[in-house]
Design a protein that fits this description.
The complex is a heterodimer. Chain A is an alpha+beta fold. Chain A has helices at residues 3-28, 31-62, 65-92, 100-108, 129-132, 134-138, 176-184, and strands at 111-117, 141-147, 150-153, 166-172. Chain A is 59% helix and 13% strand. The longest helix of chain A is centred in the first third of the chain and has 32 residues, at 31-62. Chain B contains eight helices and four strands. The chains are: A alpha+beta, B alpha+beta.
Chain lengths: 190, 216
């Protein structure tokens, strides 16, 4: 994979995480999550600037103007998606409480966001997310982990789950019960 | 050959919903929930259209974009009518901001499919680039002998067993976008899915009758 592709994929992943986090911020009326969306927006801007610079240099060097334009246009679209996430998170950061309907809409959406506490008895404790296969076995995608006062946003397959972690996930409603059982330690195999 | 069963969701049902919403005032929560759902579906569809160079999927993205315009308009009207005090107005302005953000996201999806208007020789790298993400968009076919045929998505518990989401189904010449849980899968259906490798491999093996859905 070349450098521009890597930057691009990071930008795409970040924009998707931002949207998930923005809706989570609404659901839990959480300033901390909303602020992370703003932090990630800064990263998006940096990535986009870097992609622009590298793409233009490659256009000059290899004379592939059309290809570069396609790349830049796609990066711009992804930046707009990130901007959308920021607009959503912005509502949480205002002095006024978000309208209760916002919370209800997020709750009733097709892809549900929920959070669970990981009990010390849970089978996922001290395992990496990759090893737990939570996403491919339950459909639940971990978007953030809260450990004490610390947050881990957009954890990856190498992130280790610890006892007492609060994990925020996105996934199908029908998996919620299973996830609660896994996190509480009642369900050992899934 | 079995006829396309439109009762299972998809285009016909959605078309009808379009009309209903024009004549009936709908509550803001439902409008907003739909906007959120569409804003998520539409980006997946836009990437799918680019990956498979599909004009049909691109057309659906355009229709959803149009639908989002209408939803935003409805939500604005409803919010204005609901506002009585300054506090109402402040809270509702936040709500409208979220609705407009969801619409902006769908506009971005609309811009993504405009890339299909560029000459295909200028974008040979796009499908492979998008396929390097963790969650990939891929195709799974349902063969005649598949244990998945004539079952609903809910019965199969596809998403909760594999993490794979079905974005669209191609059935003969027709498409069912964002199928719901009650949609019945048929033989020769082509599913466009989004998921990680592990879930995809298991679902593909299961669709082909080579393995169970959830065994190791």
């Amino acid at each position: 994979m070349n450098e521009i592709e890597e930057l691009f994929l990071e930008m795409k992943d970040t924009s998707e995480l931002m949207v998930d986090l923005a809706y989570s911020a609404l659901l839990y009326n959480s300033r901390e999550i909303a602020e992370e969306v703003f932090n990630l927006e800064e990263m998006i801007d940096k990535l986009n600037a870097e992609i622009q610079k590298k793409s233009v240099s490659s256009a000059v060097k290899d004379k592939n103007v059309e290809k570069t334009l396609v790349m830049l246009r796609l990066a711009t679209c992804i930046e707009s998606i990130a901007d959308g996430a920021m607009e959503i998170a912005d509502v949480v950061l205002r002095d006024i409480e978000p309208h209760p309907i916002l919370r209800m809409s997020v709750m009733e959406s097709d892809s549900m966001i929920t959070r669970v506490v990981v009990d010390k008895k849970s089978v996922i404790v001290d395992k990496t997310l990759g090893k737990t296969k939570l996403s491919s076995k339950t459909g639940m995608w971990v978007i953030a982990i809260r450990r004490g006062e610390k947050w881990f946003f957009g954890p990856d397959e190498n992130t280790i789950v610890k006892k007492g972690d609060i994990i925020i996930v996105r996934g199908p409603k029908e998996s919620e019960k299973e996830l609660v059982e896994i996190a509480s330690g009642r369900k050992r195999k899934f | 050959m079995p006829a396309v069963n439109d009762k299972t969701g998809g285009n016909m049902k959605k078309q009808k919903m379009f009309e209903e919403i024009e004549y009936e005032p709908t509550n803001v929560k439902e409008l907003l929930t739909e906007m959120k759902d569409v804003s998520e579906l539409i980006t997946d569809l836009a990437y799918s259209a680019v990956i498979f160079d599909s004009k049909d999927i691109a057309e659906e993205v355009r229709e959803l974009e149009f639908r989002m315009d209408k939803l935003l308009y409805q939500i604005r009207l409803t919010a204005m009518l609901a506002s009585r005090t300054v506090e109402d107005a402040e809270q509702l302005s936040g709500l409208l901001q979220v609705a407009s953000a969801a619409e902006n996201i769908s506009n971005a999806a609309g811009d993504i499919i405009k890339l299909l208007d560029t000459k295909i020789e200028n974008r040979p790298f796009l499908p492979s680039l998008l396929q390097k993400a963790d969650e990939k968009i891929r195709i799974i076919n349902i063969p005649e002998s598949s244990p998945m045929k004539d079952k609903t998505i809910q019965e199969l518990r596809i998403e909760s067993e594999t993490g794979v989401r079905i974005i669209a189904i191609r059935r003969r010449k027709k498409w069912v976008y964002d199928p719901d849980d009650s949609t019945t899968l048929k033989e020769n259906d082509m599913l466009i899915i989004r998921g990680v490798d592990d879930g995809y491999q298991r679902l593909k093996g299961f669709a082909e009758g080579k393995r169970g859905l959830n065994n190791e």
